[in-house]
Each structure stands twice: as structure tokens, then as C-alpha cells.
Amino acid sequence: MHVMEDAHYLELTHPDTGAPVGHGETGDMICTCLFKDDIFPIIRFNSHDVTEELAGASLRREYERVLRARLGVAVNVSFAQPGGLNELTGVERRQKPIRLIDKRKG
Description:
The chain is α+β, with helices and mostly antiparallel strands. Helix content is about 20%, strand content about 20%.
């Protein structure tokens, strides 16, 4: 459903040829993990999951729809530029970055 870009590199390739597919086309999801703590290296693992890349405004609406359906509450989704959340997540100074910031009172 989502990719932690600081931890994974994904490729979408044609199932028969292995060639990269274009935006809006479906293909096999191939994953490379960019971290090595506590797991074996995963380099170009072909999951054989047929996947489509969504990007921009359509991706935001889709995330909001899925989160509302699964959580039962409305969630506003916004995107940040690469590195834009480093200060909040501590990704550059912590072994395990903060993935959720709870601002509820009480």
C-alpha cells in the first residue's frame, strides 16, 4: 500500500521481459531493501505482485479513501518533499525513525 522511500527501492517491470514499465502501466513489483539491521539482505526480490504506480493528486485521494475505509475515520493526507520530514522523524539521527506523530490532546 505504501513505500518507505528511505528504506526501500521499488521497480516495476514487465512480467515476461523484465523491462521497466511506464507510468500507468502494471508490472511485477521488485523490491530492494536499503537497510541491513536485523534482516537478511533483499536485493531485487521479485514479489510477482502485479502493481501499478500512482502519483500526485490521484494518489492523495486514494490514500484518503483507503484510510477512511480501513480506519473508519477521515484522514487528511499531504505529501512532503524528499527530506522535508527529517526533523520530525529523526531519520538522520535515530536507528528507528518516528513514523507516527500523535497530536491528540489528553
